[in-house]
Amino acid sequence: MATQPLYARIADQLAQDIASGRHAVGATLPTELELAAQLQVSRATVRAALASLEARKLVSRRKNAGTRVEAASPRGGYGAALASLSDLLQWAQACQRAVQRTDDVVLDQNLARELGCEPGSRWLRVQSLRFDADKGQGPVAWTDAYIDARYAAILPAVLSQPTVLMSQLLEQQFGLDLATVDQEISGGKLDPVTAQALKAEPDGAALKVVRRYLTGSGQPALVTVSTHPAERFSIRTTLNRS
Asked: By C-alpha distance, which of 66, 115, 112 is closest to 224?
């Protein structure tokens, strides 16, 4: 099993401090700089740990107001502050991939429209469940990942490195630049097959997230379609006026 990333260990430590009452509900945590000095880690690591706590709804963060403790224990579900590629990398480390099956597919009109790809194009499909190893609960998501057939040789790395994003593996192995990700979020219902895999109620509310990882020329090299039971997952973003 992969080693838990440092930011996640820091987040767990802070969560334990909150649960024990060391940081009471309503109190304000030390600043990022103060925590970094106390824990002897970088400020970036502290920031990632606090984002994890905020995703668990243990704390809230406001500019110029610090980090406020909101609850002594998580309120259920799995939240993610996915506003950047670094956030996606952290989420991948926290939620490990368990590949269920793989196959080669040729996109028909409907699937090509959903993925934003050319009909008749060939792709390697990797179907996986995502688990939050730390919580030991049911699956967080079912993901259908479509990898351009030209890069199908990536499969052994996908199978052997369950906490590394497929986009990161593609960049490492093929020298691609996938710094642009087009993300589309929609609501729907769980179909019976997906519900069974996720151990959720059929026709239950679902959150579908389609991510298209684009090359420098704007062509998708990887498209992932993740389906989450609505009560187990939320995505939090912060918008700033430009």
From this structure: 115
